[in-house]
From TrEMBL:
GO terms for biological process: L-valine transmembrane transport. Belongs to the AzlC family. The keyword Manganese does not apply. One of its GO terms (cellular component) is plasma membrane. It is a multi-pass membrane protein. It comes from Sporolactobacillus putidus. It is found in: Cell membrane. Pfam families: AzlC. Keywords: Cell membrane, Membrane, Transmembrane, Transmembrane helix, Transport. This is Azaleucine resistance protein AzlC. Its main location: membrane.
Length: 242
């Protein structure tokens, strides 16, 4: 009666699942616990309540921005300055999402928005690593990756706020280095398995971006230097890609 549509079995099997996205996020989650815990402690030291810390983590969902917000609140900065600074720092996400967008053109607008609003530097690194290695990604996989990171971030921030009064300085536990360590690990995972010719090109781009950031930081804020050097580095990568 009804017409059957034959779908290749391999395509169905190869589509990454939600649970695979969660598993691929596990290395990132280990770093998130330390960073988010430190963010919760800093928020508590800024006299934010546990609920306010949890809402900040859920709404802003950005380590650097949360630290900046707490620092500016402690300094008595006007809300307009805090909002503007947070927007500038997070504007790099336009670049991250536009890079991932071609992999999700077959999905609807609402589904793409749902994926985009939860993309972070770390989940982007995991996703782009899959794309570069020609490993398929899907909306379900991306949701597994993003949502697991999002939930762990909120829970860890809240835990840090709850225990903040017993840990006056996250630096004493080395939690301030967690973000740097996690990005180093993500870079190594990203470069692993790349052909030698591409590896040399990727390392060249890393050097260019770091060098530009160091130079630009003398002329602008570190946040703008990171954004500008990233844009220039990406442009160099496009122009020199073979």
């Amino acid at each position: 009666m009804s017409e059957m549509v034959n779908v290749p079995a391999d395509a169905a099997r190869e589509a990454p699942t939600f649970s695979q996205g969660v598993r691929d996020c596990l290395p990132t989650l280990l770093g998130y616990v330390g960073i988010a815990f430190a963010a919760g402690i800093v928020g508590s030291a800024t006299h934010l309540s546990v609920l306010e810390n949890a809402l900040l983590a859920a709404w802003i969902y950005a380590g650097a921005s949360q630290f900046i917000i707490c620092a500016m609140l402690a300094a008595g900065s006007p809300y307009s300055a805090i909002i503007f600074t947070t927007f500038i720092v997070n504007s790099r996400h336009f670049l991250l999402c536009s890079t991932l967008a071609p992999s999700f053109v077959k999905y609807g607008l609402l589904k793409n928005i749902g994926m985009g609003v939860l993309v972070t530097d770390e989940t982007f690194a995991v996703a782009i690593g899959k794309i570069i290695k020609k490993q398929g990604i899907s909306a379900r996989w991306m949701y597994g990756l993003n949502l697991s990171a999002y939930v762990v971030w909120i829970v860890s921030c809240t835990a840090g706020a709850l225990l903040g009064k017993w840990v006056p300085s996250p630096d004493s536990l080395g939690l301030d280095f967690a973000l740097t360590a996690m990005f180093c690990a993500l870079l190594v995972l990203h470069l692993d398995g790349i052909k030698r010719s591409r590896l040399v090109h990727q390392l060249f781009l890393v050097f260019c971006t770091v060098f530009l950031m160091a130079v630009l930081s003398f002329f602008m804020s570190s946040y703008l230097a990171v954004l500008t050097s990233t844009l220039i580095g990406a442009t160099i990568g496009v122009l020199t890609e073979k």
